[in-house]
Design a protein that fits this description.
alpha+beta, outer membrane lipoprotein receptor (LolB), chain A, eleven-stranded antiparallel β-sheet, about 20% helix
């Protein structure tokens, strides 16, 4: 479960960075029914393993509804994150389900992500010190955890985010010495309705949002 929560945190940070910089949201503007789609590469460096663990895939982010993170290589796995919780699916089989009513920290990070999508930069400042540099064309943000007593936030030593109109890269250094590089490309905002398969993933009636 700890690994899943760390993965979620990294995804959430990357997603919310896509649409905010410093005190002014300068990223893409969403309207009702819009979704942010794109691809990613991910390279994890574990301190006890010589070679990096590389993977790639695609994602769909729909503000207010959730994030679909599809790992395509070297294995196929879909992670769905919504206000109600996290689901991980391999093939047609659900292999893990974590509800926000049981793990409230998931809701905390989800709403931080959604708040940033709405231009509420303060969502990040509740958990991190924020150092920013550059301008709307080329910027870099470094996040450092504020509260070491929060186990999920304290798992990160720092998070560096770079981009322009969209987020281009996220470099994560964890407190245990591991690191991770995520690169985003082919990003676009689609005004089309969510694909039926994606809509089904985001509308899991068995997951109930925490009150």
């Amino acid at each position: 479960m700890r690994c899943t929560k760390l993965i979620f945190a990294a995804i959430a940070i990357a997603a919310l960075a896509s649409v905010s910089f410093a005190e002014s949201p300068i990223g893409p503007t969403f309207t009702a029914g819009d979704a942010l789609c794109g691809r990613f590469t991910q390279s994890r460096k574990l301190k006890d393993i010589a070679q990096p663990l590389n993977s790639d895939g695609s994602f769909v982010l729909e503000p207010g509804r959730g994030l679909i993170w599809r790992l395509e290589h070297p294995v196929q796995m879909t992670t769905v994150i919504s206000p109600a919780g996290i689901r991980q699916i391999i093939g047609n089989n659900e292999v893990q389900r974590i509800e926000t009513v049981k793990v409230p920290v998931i809701a905390h990070f989800y709403y931080a992500m959604n708040g940033a999508l709405l231009g509420e930069w303060t969502a990040l400042k509740k958990d991190f010190t924020v150092q920013s540099m550059g301008d709307s064309h080329a910027w870099r943000i470094v996040l450092t955890p504020l509260r070491s007593t929060d186990p999920l936030v304290a798992a990160f030593a720092s998070i560096a985010i770079k981009g322009g109109k969209m987020v281009d890269a996220v470099d994560i250094t964890r407190a245990n010495g591991d690191s991770e590089e995520i690169r985003f490309f082919d990003q676009k905002i689609s005004s089309l309705m969510t694909h039926p398969d994606d809509a089904k993933l985001l509308e899991d009636k068995d997951l109930k949002p925490a009150n």
